Amino acid sequence: METPVKPDHTAATTVNFSEPRKFTTTLRSDLKETFFPDDPFSRFRGEEKPLLRLKKGVEYFVPIFEWLPKYNLRLFRFDLIAGLTITSLAIPQGISYAKLANVPPIIGLYSSFVPPLIYSVFGDSKHIAVGTVAACSLLIAETIGKVVSPVTDPTLYLHLVFTTAFVTGIFQTLLGFLRLGVLVDFLSHSTITGFMGGTATIICLQQLKGFLGMKHFTTKTNAVSVVHAIVHYRHEWRWESALVGVIFLIFLQFTRYLKQKKPKLFWVSAMAPMVVVIVGCVFAYLIHGTEHGIQTVGELKKGINPLSIEYLNFDSRYLPAVMKAGIITGFVALAEGIAIGRSFAIMNNLQVDGNKEMIAFGFMNIIGSFTSCYLTTGPFSKTAVNYNAGAKTAMSNIIMAVFMALTLRFLAPLFSHTPLVALSAIIMSAMLGLINYDEAIHLFKVDKFDFFICMAGFFGVVFVSMDVGLMLSVGLGVLRALLYVARPASCKLGKIQNSMLYRDTEQYPGTTTVPGILVLQLGSPIYFANCNYIRERILRWIREEQANSSSEGNVIEHVLLDLTGVTTIDVTGIETLVDVRRSLDAKGIKMAIVNPRLKVMEKFIQSHFIDKIGKENFHLSVEEAVDACQFSLHKSKQNGDVSAEQPIVVDGSVI
Amino acid sequence: METPVKPDHTAATTVNFSEPRKFTTTLRSDLKETFFPDDPFSRFRGEEKPLLRLKKGVEYFVPIFEWLPKYNLRLFRFDLIAGLTITSLAIPQGISYAKLANVPPIIGLYSSFVPPLIYSVFGDSKHIAVGTVAACSLLIAETIGKVVSPVTDPTLYLHLVFTTAFVTGIFQTLLGFLRLGVLVDFLSHSTITGFMGGTATIICLQQLKGFLGMKHFTTKTNAVSVVHAIVHYRHEWRWESALVGVIFLIFLQFTRYLKQKKPKLFWVSAMAPMVVVIVGCVFAYLIHGTEHGIQTVGELKKGINPLSIEYLNFDSRYLPAVMKAGIITGFVALAEGIAIGRSFAIMNNLQVDGNKEMIAFGFMNIIGSFTSCYLTTGPFSKTAVNYNAGAKTAMSNIIMAVFMALTLRFLAPLFSHTPLVALSAIIMSAMLGLINYDEAIHLFKVDKFDFFICMAGFFGVVFVSMDVGLMLSVGLGVLRALLYVARPASCKLGKIQNSMLYRDTEQYPGTTTVPGILVLQLGSPIYFANCNYIRERILRWIREEQANSSSEGNVIEHVLLDLTGVTTIDVTGIETLVDVRRSLDAKGIKMAIVNPRLKVMEKFIQSHFIDKIGKENFHLSVEEAVDACQFSLHKSKQNGDVSAEQPIVVDGSVI
Q1: Where are the transmembrane segments (chains A, B) (predicted)?
Q2: Domain segments of chain A as ranges
Q3: Model ipTM value
Q4: What are phi and psi of A620, to 5 degrees?
Q5: Which of B347, B351, B486 is the closest to A655 by Cβ?
Q6: A-B interface: how many C-beta pairs under 8 angstroms?
């Protein structure tokens, strides 16, 4: 598209000094970029008919209205198979993770009935399969277990777990409505890799309890406590249990290996946990396992979710722990659910609205907490299975919910014979897949700081506790983000031979510089947190340059600051540039600004910086600026200009 | 200087794909930029003779060795006058601020004897005058007053104040040694303006107690409590006191006004507080003020600082409050001292090493806490007076210390007659100068967010408490810093008429674009906290562009990402670019990278991103990239290339 050309040529070949945009314009643009970068309303804002607009609006906020009318039998066939596959995974995982959270196993099954239904109504992703997750289950057990014992007061403990899910739901919904999806972005990939790896490690260690058929154990999650407990209660070890466990684990790992070798056989590994549970049940039932040290899950009542809304407990004694557990698990669950939803969406060139997803997750947890469910999200493993099994829409979640309801209504008591060791093998196998060595090695190779963030998360979780590990890793990530802006890169530019391009002299060693002119490129916003650094750095560039060039008899007369990479500037930043100019003036060096961007130019105009520096010292490109300086150098030499000819005192202790 | 030119021409006209620098090289460079941006050791690293090097090293770490040998009588004449002037200010201010901190007035005088001596040995600034400050005095009173009452247990309270100074000293020294000066940079100019304004407001309100000669008052500092106390104890109001106070205040404000009109008369306003104290003493002595409701300071013992090292109290009951007070006041004191030192240094083209200053302030407070002093720093007002009075070196601090010692030894008891109302007038007059309306208006005009940060500090201090106000304001500043990196600016580039420059189309409305080619400029680092935003934003640019151009029949075939402004990238950022490429591929759009900077290129190579994208898709300049794309467009049209001719489906719900 050919934009119409202004007749005024001068406006296009010099820096644009026109009046800044209005405050309301910039504010609206800033708010939009901050909270609505994906422009979610564009799809129905353009619609002119009010009714159609309303319809599109409802479809946007409640996605099921969008996809259900277009639903057909062909899609249903895919979703049915996927739904069945994830149900067969949901049952053993539900029971296992409920044990991890120290709640009755039936709660794990309940949690795969109501929440998937809610998600299928409000959720945006077509691939997410809803369910409980190991990391959050353990986090809840760790945090709530500190204030109420799940052994001596299981009822109160359970009610607090429901309340935690409620807090999580409210928190997630709020984040979504306030469009604070950006907060979740601060859980970086490195943090998640480290945290997940650490969590998987401690969960694996914990499963040794089930593997060895032990009855006593520690409630702490860190590696030292767990290993100590295992050694301390070594008289409780049962070889029968361990043998069964190892066999199950080998089987599960083999199916995983098979999936890796032949991705089409993914369903073998998806079904494997169910097979382990069934074989385990039959085996335990036949040999009367409990008499041989093989403990079983125990009583599982028939019937679908009872209401639990009246059990929500906001007692001020427990509220701090509940709030903490709710918010931290809410964060982790969002990070996991949104990340996985996004990855599959990207693979299929779809768009997932993170903030809308948060609201869907929030609703799902609020209503879950009313109906005897604990925290659910879109787990990595289950979602991957759902996707591989061919799920096309959120219908697969509805199908899972229906099958789960049938299971709860008719089959639940059968699972009471499941041996704990089978659950431990299932958990351990799942966790071994979450320890991502390759990713850690990749991080080490590409970015040492990312690797450090990852390791801080890993070791924090393994040796201290899950929340400490997570916060440590996130804290380091934020620190890095702050350092990026506190220490922005700057470089010296030189001209590339046979071209008119000015590039970093370190990156392109063949560049040439003009004697007497120093071109510096600054990057990142210039503002309070980095302005001292920038001032020091510019003065150091000049000092270093003078130290190099003094032997050759040249002194710097012009410093050009290329602001192409400077996205914005604040009041302190502008004052810094004024200070720099004053310092340079005192040394007889002239300063010029090259290519300030829109926002920077607006601030320059508003703060009258332009008037202080002079319009003639603003240039549109480095080349033009260098030409102007060369002209002035030439002129000053011809005229024998005193100020330019005067030798400038280079004194390291003064500059 | 003409850099030698490589014979290899190809290396200079394409992007440099050579191997990344070694990890140790980049680490050393990063650490240097983070902790030693001012390259402090350069001055003696170059020295070859070991003895001379040692001498220069000692001179660097203990600046008095540098300036004292060169000291002469001419400099001494200047410093003597400045020293006398700041002594005359130090006595009334010392007594006043000690009252503000609820410690005996003599402590304020002690604090102007030992700390200036220490600073003159280790301090780097030639202009700072050491002394106590109002804001920190009140902050200490507020924080320590919460755990121990200065009225019922004054001895313990005083010991905790010494301990606070000790904690401050250790904290400041540590920050300096760890080269964490960057932390102080997070106290932005806006924060300091707001915090100082708020503090000045509540201190003025508090002085109404002294003005009105009241005996009862609140210990809280917020405006509501103070106004309530004033009204509540209105039966204690004494008109005599108020009358004297108003007269003093008018006199002090008049001298300030005089200074503003005729800057040469600065000494009048510098001496005025001393005049008020002397006149007040004489007046109170003559009329027996206490009988007329004019309270006086009371007993002041002769003699210089007694040792207080044995009084430092680390009782665990009080330690949290002491730590909190020590660290917060340490921060504020550093921010004030370093900022003022730096401003005068810049004015005189000198350099002040922030980290070294921290160590000097730290030593001064540690030794101060051993010798009955409380927190000292380089206050704005006193330093300005010192500078205006002609101080040339830190000798003026030594002279002040000598005069202060003489005062303590011989004259202290005279000041016991000082009326409290005189002190209140002195404090109030000083505080009125700290409420910087002009700066707030300037902030409002130039940057609304800076103004908001400032106002948050102001109202937080006035209506809640000093620490809350400070943290709120700093928190908003950090949030903004994070938003800068979480929402980096991006823009669409177009070619400026009659040139080969590509610039922001919004900033330069006359630019033209090539049909089918979209050039986007990204800014700031690309990394975990902004990669989702960047992905969404690039896709939105394309969507918007296609919505505009579809009516004209052009579809986008090339997207060029100009990374000139991208200073660095992390692992998540690289993955994002891979994702973007995949999304574009699916739409039949080709992606190319323009001018990646050194660090970014290194990461690209390490992560094998180059291999994924293909070297042919890297360009050194936008112009070159556009030429390459135009060539490919031309070719595809000529050859009737199917993939390029195929109309691309533009579907808002899918993109």
Answers
A1: 103-122, 128-145, 157-180, 186-205, 265-287, 321-346, 358-377, 389-408, 420-437, 449-479
A2: 65-297+309-480, 489-635
A3: 0.76
A4: -85, -30
A5: B351
A6: 339
